[in-house]
Amino acid sequence: MYNGKKVIVVLPAYNAALTLEKTYREIPFDLVDEVILCDDASRDNTSDLAREIGINHVIKHERNKGYGGNQKTLYNKALELGGDIVIMLHPDYQYTPKLIPAMVNIIGDELYPVVLGSRILGKGALKGGMPLYKYIANRLLTFTQNLLINYKLSEYHTGYRSFSREVLQGVDFNQNSDDFVFDNEMLSQIVYAGYEIAEVTCPTKYFEEASSINFRRSAKYGMGVLRVSLCHFLQRLGLAKFRMYGKPADRGNSQKG
User: Fold this and answer.
1) What is the pLDDT of residue 133?
2) Rounded to the nearest 10 degrees, how much is the dihedral formed by the CA atoms of 68, 158, 156, 197?
């Protein structure tokens, strides 16, 4: 709990058995009330290990639903459990759980309703081993997105994110893609809805066990990001209307409980 607000960490997991326990042990449980892990049909023993180490809620998809599909399951469950502050942390130990207190403080003290852990602020990305082509693509895409979306972030592509309950209820994330572009669609929805976003400098680690997508998937992701940014631009100017920017249907979670 923080200032009377329930804090939930959600872990979107896929073949994360080698790094899950290390990630979990660094979560600050003096602040975090519950942890939810969703195993997206892993080929290893991720979900069994999650139960062994004491994770409160373990969900396993019988078929792979994708990175976005995994997050939808997690956010809906977090709302169902009454989460007021929800932090998405990758269980591959690419992002440090030690930043959770900073994210919780910012949202819990109502400074900002969304906090991103940025690898680009400072020199975290390249120092942590981000491939140069990914770094360049990140910078080019972010520059384009800032222009089209009319916002200013150091990056839109971090996987370390935290949200207030109000934000998760205020955007229709269930309309989004089940693939990696889900993250960008959600940020676009958040900006369009008028929520402000904070960023904190985040060190990151690239190593063999950390999850990553190959060049082909990265290229597909990049095209999806440009599509989302263009949709946002057209919606913002009133030249088109896209369903993803509508108000979410009642998911039975409008009241905390």
Assistant:
1) 76
2) 100
How many other CB atoms sit within 10 Å of the CB of residue 1?
14
Are 87 and 96 spatial neighbours (Cβ–Cβ below 8 Å)?
no
Q: Tokens at residue 176, please?
A: 């989004």
Q: Give the rounded distance of the alpha carbon of 120 from its chain centre.
A: 16
Both tokens of 9, joined, read: 């960490």
* 106-147 tens-digit pLDDT: 999 999 999 999 988 876 666 667 778 778 888 899 999 999
pLDDT of residue 249: 73
Instruction: Measure CA of the first residue to CA of the last residue in the chain; give whole Å.
Output: 15
- pTM score, whole prediction: 0.90
Predicted local confidence at residue 255, as pLDDT: 40
pLDDT value of residue 253: 44
Q: Is the dihedral of CA 205, 211, 214, 220 positive or negative?
A: negative
Q: For residues 218, 219, 221 and 224, what is the CA-based torsion angle, rounded to 10 degrees?
A: 170
**Pairing label, strands 161-164, 114-118:** antiparallel
Residues of the chain with pLDDT under 50: 210, 251-255, 257
SS3 content of the chain, % helix, strand, coil (to 5): 40, 15, 45
**202, 118 in Cβ contact below 8 A?**
yes
- Phi, then psi, of 99 in degrees rounded to 5: -90, -5
7-245 classified as CATH 3.40.50.20: no
Neighbours of 183 (CB within 10 A): 24
